[in-house]
């Protein structure tokens, strides 16, 4: 696992948090919720690709 992956997810979280606060204070709560959900989906896509790589590595180690 690279440190870059951790920084990517942390950066995404910071951007989503800032946008969420800005939109909430502007009275755009629905848009803030949409941004939060989009950030969550983006983080899950990043993690899912890494989990796929993990399973591929395990498969090659045990010759399955």
Number of helices: 2
Q: Largest beta sheet, briefly?
A: none
Helix content: over 70%
Count of discrete structural domains = 1
User: How far apart, in Å, are the first and last alpha carbons?
Assistant: 22 Å
General form = elongated
Radius of gyration based on Cα positions: 16 Å
Structural class: mainly alpha
On the 0 to 100 scale, the average pLDDT is 93
Stretches where pLDDT falls below 50 for ≥5 residues?
none
Helices and strands, in order, run as: HH
Protein name: Stage III sporulation protein AC
Keywords: Membrane, Transmembrane, Transmembrane helix
Organism: Candidatus Ornithomonoglobus intestinigallinarum
List keywords for this structure.
single chain, 64 residues, mainly alpha, transmembrane helix, Spore_III_AC
Description of the structure:
This is Stage III sporulation protein AC. The chain crosses the membrane at residues 6-24, 31-49. Keywords: Membrane, Transmembrane, Transmembrane helix. Pfam families: SpoIIIAC. The chain is mostly helical and 64 residues long. The chain has one domain. It is built from 2 helices and no strands. The protein has helices spanning 3-25, 29-61. The radius of gyration is 16 Å and the shape is elongated. The model has no long low-confidence stretch (mean pLDDT 93).
